[in-house]
Write a structure and sequence with these properties.
about 290 residues; alpha+beta; Triger factor/SurA peptide-binding fold; Chitinase A, domain 3; 10 helices; about 15% strand; extended; PrsA_foldase
Amino acid sequence: MVSDDKVAVVNGKIITEFDFHNALQGFAMEMHRKPMEQLSVEELEEIRALAMEKLVARELIYQEALAEGVVAADDAVSAEIDKVIANFPSEEEFYATLAKAGIQPIAYYRMLRQDLTVNLMSEKKLAQVAEPAEAEILETYRRHPEKMKKPGRARACHILVKAPPGDREEALVKIRRIKEQATADNFADLAREHSQCPSAQRGGDLGYFHRGDMVKPFSDAAFSQQVGAVGDIVETPFGVHLIRVLDHEPDSSLSLEEARPSIRRFLKETAGAQLLKQWVEDLRRRADIEILQA
């Protein structure tokens, strides 16, 4: 049972074991895609340090926000709660889940208000980040040509025969029969007749897509097949496919003007992260912090 015992005190404000446990679970899922209880000793030690650092920083920013009169509005908190409730079958189910976790509705409201207030204060601080200078944008463009690329695309059409898990033989028999008939000339007609994908009405045409937009077996086939040819049968979690590639576009270099928006965004985000890090370090130096559980 997670308690309300204190694990840290920041300028007299208590961080509870409950808060620490929630932060640990969040990092476990974010970093390792599994519950905290399934982590190795090394993984748990790693996220314990991160969770405590995050909680202390959050409390410091929240206190700074209150000192400057920055507080999330009630309607903003209510709207955020409504968004969370929308993920549950009903409002009753949401509050039942809170109760099962030992969280009172008013405590949940306060937690959300604190999170939103921290976000508001962080955004206020980030507003101080200046626009990157033109010379900095140009230098970044020149120093990282390998990143200034427009990824290649493929355009393909396909015929999908769905297959239930563990029983794909019938689908394979059907797709093999279709493959025996398929040519570049009649592929679209066969897709309209046989494909079980919504793209069937377009002759199976999926339009252009990048690597990673499709599941890996499909993407690998689409980017390796010869343009115009009907490829071998491809199996994916969706079923079995025949693919005909219509076009390949190779990777290409971005011009400075094409790359400018992403370079600008990258430089601002980098500067913002550094600003927030330095700001929190300054807050920590001025604060009275007692860590009771590491």
